[in-house]
C-alpha cells in the first residue's frame, strides 16, 4: 500500500476505483462524475469535494467547464497506477488477510482502551471494516480473528462472530510498539508454545511439554519459555558429552520447574508431563 492510499478515505478510494472502471482503465480519459453521486446517493458537492481531494494528491485532473458540480474528471498517470494497485490488492487474498489482521488489532486496541470488550460482529460497523472501500466478508474476519487468537494476540470469549474480543499483552504491544503490523510483529516475536496441565478428559499425548488433549479447567500453568530453556539446557548436555556442567541459572530453572510439578494436582496429565521432562530435570540437576 502506497503513501497515497494510506492517506485516502474510503469514499475517495471508491471514487478512484469507479473512475478506473468508467475510463476503461486508461489515463487522461474524461469521465462525468454525476453517475458516481447517483450510484452512491451522494450530493454533487460531496462528490466535488472527493474529486478535489484526489486532485490535490495528483491522482485525478479536473475539467473546469463552468457547469454546476460535480465536474468531469480523469485519472492521471499516477492515479491510474494507484487504482491498478488497489484492484490488485482487492484480488489478492493475502493482502486482504493482512489488512484484516491489522485492522482487527487496532480496532480491538481502541475498544479495549475505552474499557469495552466488544463482540466480533461489532467490527463491521467500524471504519476499519472497509478495505479499499469494500466491506470485508464475515469469513475473512472470523478467520483472521482465529489466527490472532492462535498467535496469542487476542482472546475470543464465545463462539465465532458473537465472541467478545480482548487483546492480550502481546496484542497490546503489537498495537503500540509494533505499530499494528501483525505479520512483522509475529515474525520478530513468535508466540510461545502453550503449556497447560488440567483434568484430562481423554487420551494424553505429551511431547516436550505440549499436551494435546485437555479440558479448560486449569490446574497448573507453567511458563512455556521456562520449558523451552530447560529443553535447550538438556540438549546442550547431550551435544557436549563430558563438557562443562549446566550453568547455575539452568539448575535454578530446573529446580523451580520440579517444584511446580511437585505441587501440581495429581492428574494423568501431570504424570505424563513429569514422565516426559523428568529425565531432562534429572540430567540438568545432576541426579
Rg from alpha-carbon coordinates: 28 Å
Number of helices: 12
Largest sheet: 2 strands, antiparallel
Q: Sketch the topology as an H/E string, one letter per element.
A: HHHHEEHHEEHEEHHEEEEHHH
| Biggest β-sheet: strands ordered side by side in the sheet | 1-2
| Multimeric status of the protein | single chain
* Shape estimate: elongated
Number of strands: 10
Helix content: 40-55%
Derived from helix and strand composition plus strand pairing, the structural class reads mainly alpha
Strand-residue proportion: 5-15%
Uncertain ranges: 1-5, 193-219
Core attributes:
mainly alpha; 52% helix; two-stranded antiparallel sheet; 287 residues; elongated; disordered N terminus
Structure summary:
With 287 residues, this protein is mostly helical.
Task: Describe, in plain words, how this protein is organized in 3D.
The structure is a single chain. This protein is mostly helical and 287 residues long. Helices cover 52% and strands 11% of the residues. It has twelve helices and ten strands. Helix 6 packs across helix 8. The longest helix has 21 residues. The chain is elongated, with a radius of gyration of 28 Å. The termini are far apart. The N terminus is likely disordered.
Q: What layout of secondary structure does this protein have?
A:
Blueprint (H helix, E strand, L loop, with lengths): L2 H4 L3 H13 L11 H7 L3 H13 L3 E4 L8 E4 L1 H14 L2 H21 L16 E2 L2 E2 L2 H13 L3 E4 L6 E4 L1 H7 L6 H7 L7 E3 L7 E2 L2 E2 L6 E4 L2 H16 L8 H15 L5 H18 L2
Helix pairs in contact: 2-4, 2-5, 6-7, 6-8, 10-11, 10-12, 11-12
